[in-house]
Input
Amino acid sequence: MPPSPSTWHALIRTHHITSRAKVSKLKQAATKHGVFVLLRSGGAPGMMYVAGEARGNVEEWVGVVQRLRYKDYQLVAKPIEVEATGNATKGLFETDSVADFGRQMEERGVLAWWRKAMGYTS
Output
């Protein structure tokens, strides 16, 4: 039996994500590095989830975020390899609610990881 496919993912928390110019740069970087990105934008807290097939692509996208100098930037979950779940869509997608962000984390099979990284559970 072949090994399960895996993906790399990371989670970033910021004070907020409101700058459309920065979101545009994040979208360009998602396309360039071939990763899936989910943003919780519009208010506090700002959250960014990134997933990709290669560690380097995820790390490079995280580097783009660091260079944009978001207020209260925290890499709450460094890139880690996990078993692939959910779809393999690439690009940047946004939501304006924490509840929807959580629902999408559940669909991807990383809800427990996300909740722990955000400090919602121990």
Q: What stands out?
A: The beta strands are 6-14, 36-40, 46-52, 74-83, 91-95.
